[in-house]
Task: inverse folding
């Protein structure tokens, strides 16, 4: 009886292959070869799952700006705008653009590309700013739940389709971190200026186009608010300098006036019902409503300064009635209703106008503890007015009260 011969097994050699430890996390988990394609490997793209390589690819600002910026997700228009920023060409393209942004924003200079701190900007840095916005900045923007809903939900949703709104909230988030982290203030101020300049380029161009204004009413309104807050953060850049406070206040007033002109002349509230809480009560009166309200009403003060003084009194009464629910818009609206002649007097540093501004600074200072981007405004204005008023002037004696209120504040 023959015994079966044992099966001879031939040893096969393994196919040579290169090993890599930089594949995506999903391929590592499934133990399959990752082709490391970017922004998503072929396996993740085929299975329609999120690929970790999308988040891992850095956005470098060193070397050639066109190599990385042109391929980064959510940065479709960054390359052309980036080149425009390097050219530092920010002349207004229309009356509307100039109305909201009546001054040159800080430029993103070519020399910053070699800055070791700024070269760390990447997609992960943007994610850091977005996380900070959603977890901290949002809650610092208001005490009202309806307004917080807009900052927490409506505005981030607008970023999905509008890159310039995304840049706007990243700029706002970076400015907030600069306020909180004084040790890294310059880094985050650079990031804030970088994102703001990119967003403002698209903002200006869309304001100059009638079709774009009609099509993008909501994002234009949202970024207009970012412009105003960006001006308010100027004290972080000037270190509360008493030489720029009045000039910054005039810029702020012109931006607010221009912004609201655009709201009433270009934008339709019917298309922005979910943003109504941001501008509650700002609807212009109809002719019938105006006639009814002015009927049998004695004429008001003819003097512009008297009107402005009564406006300050109304603000104080409103803030006292609202208490902890006071909003910064209640204070800034005074700048919108400020007469053009008074604004001109403020710009030319006339003593009566400076006294009016000093009293307004006391109101601003009272809100600094709850509104972070107002920090330093009251002190800076009072210091500059103190330097400008003559010792023997009648305004000096009335200014003493405002100066005393600022010095009495609990730090």
Result:
């Amino acid at each position: 009886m023959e015994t079966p011969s044992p099966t001879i097994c031939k040893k096969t050699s393994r196919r040579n292959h290169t090993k890599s430890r930089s594949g995506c996390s999903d391929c590592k988990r499934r133990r399959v070869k990752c082709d490391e394609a970017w922004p998503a490997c072929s396996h993740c793209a085929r299975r329609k799952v999120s690929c970790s390589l999308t988040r891992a690819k850095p956005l470098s600002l060193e070397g050639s700006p066109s190599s990385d910026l042109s391929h980064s997700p959510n940065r479709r228009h960054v390359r052309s705008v980036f080149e425009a920023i390097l050219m530092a060409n920010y002349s207004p393209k229309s009356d509307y653009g100039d109305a909201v942004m009546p001054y040159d924003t800080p430029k993103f200079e070519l020399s910053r590309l070699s800055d070791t701190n700024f070269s760390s900007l990447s997609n992960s840095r943007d994610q850091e700013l977005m996380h900070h916005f959603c977890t901290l900045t949002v809650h610092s923007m208001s005490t009202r739940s309806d307004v917080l809903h807009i900052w927490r939900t409506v505005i981030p949703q607008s970023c999905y389709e509008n890159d310039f709104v995304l840049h706007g909230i990243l700029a706002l988030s970076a400015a907030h971190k600069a306020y909180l982290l004084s040790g890294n203030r310059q880094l985050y101020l650079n990031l804030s200026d970088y994102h703001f300049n990119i967003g403002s380029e698209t903002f200006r161009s869309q304001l100059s186009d009638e079709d774009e204004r009609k099509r993008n009413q909501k994002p234009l309104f949202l970024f207009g608010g970012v412009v105003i807050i960006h001006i308010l953060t100027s004290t972080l850049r000037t270190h509360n300098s008493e030489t720029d406070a009045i000039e910054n206040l005039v810029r702020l007033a012109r931006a607010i006036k221009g912004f609201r002109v655009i709201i009433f002349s270009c934008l339709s509230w019917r298309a922005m019902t979910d943003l109504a809480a941001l501008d509650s009560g700002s609807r212009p009166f109809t002719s019938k409503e105006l006639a009814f309200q002015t009927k049998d009403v004695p004429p008001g003060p003819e003097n512009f300064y008297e009107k402005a003084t009564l406006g300050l009194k109304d603000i104080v009464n409103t803030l006292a009635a609202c208490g902890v629910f006071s909003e910064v818009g209640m204070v800034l609206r005074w700048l919108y209703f400020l007469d053009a002649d008074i604004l001109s007097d403020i710009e030319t540093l006339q003593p009566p106008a400076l006294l009016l501004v000093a009293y307004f600074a006391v109101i601003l200072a009272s809100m600094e503890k709850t509104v972070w981007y107002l920090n330093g405004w009251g002190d800076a204005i009072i210091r500059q007015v103190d330097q400008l008023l003559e010792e023997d002037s009648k305004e000096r004696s009335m200014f003493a009260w405002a100066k005393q209120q600022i010095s009495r504040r609990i730090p």
Residues 285-407 form one domain. The chain has three domains: 25-56, 75-277, 285-407.
